[in-house]
Amino acid sequence: QVQLVESGGGLVQAGGSLRLSCAASGSIFSINAMGWYRQAPGKQRELVATITVGGSTNYADSVKGRFTISRDNTKNTVYTVYLQMNSLKPEDTAVYYCNERLSWGQGTQVTVSS
Fold it and tell me: What is the separation, in whole angstroms, between the first and last Cα of the chain?
């Protein structure tokens, strides 16, 4: 099992950018893929983007062309996944969670003001 810690959320105006980071530690040798999810108030948690160890990516239609997921697997003890978010919209406001199979981070708040 891995432990996940997110960082990088905050308040930004519409059209702005933020970069989220997720540091995975523990059994990182077992990681095949990781993803970012988000949950807005009153809504279900939804998939934002995923990335495999090999670098293959997948995005929700709502963020394609605006968000980019990447990973750094060059370190022996920490596996880091990033979510670069550009052209942010108020509807992107949510708590963003990092995920690796059954492991979840604590979440980081992203608020986009209009």
Answer: 39
Give a three-class secondary structure readout of 68-105: EEEEECCCCCCEEEEEEECCCCHHHCEEEEEEECCEEC
Q: Which pair of structure tokens corresponds to residue 12?
A: 């930004």
Q: Is 89 exposed, middle or buried (0-12, 13-18, 19+ CB in 10 A)?
A: middle
Strand partners, 26: 2
CB atoms within 10 A of CB 43: 9
Residue 78 pLDDT: 92
pLDDT at 74 over 90: no
Rounded Cα distance between 98 and 32, Å, is: 14
8 A C-beta contact, residue 5 and residue 107: no
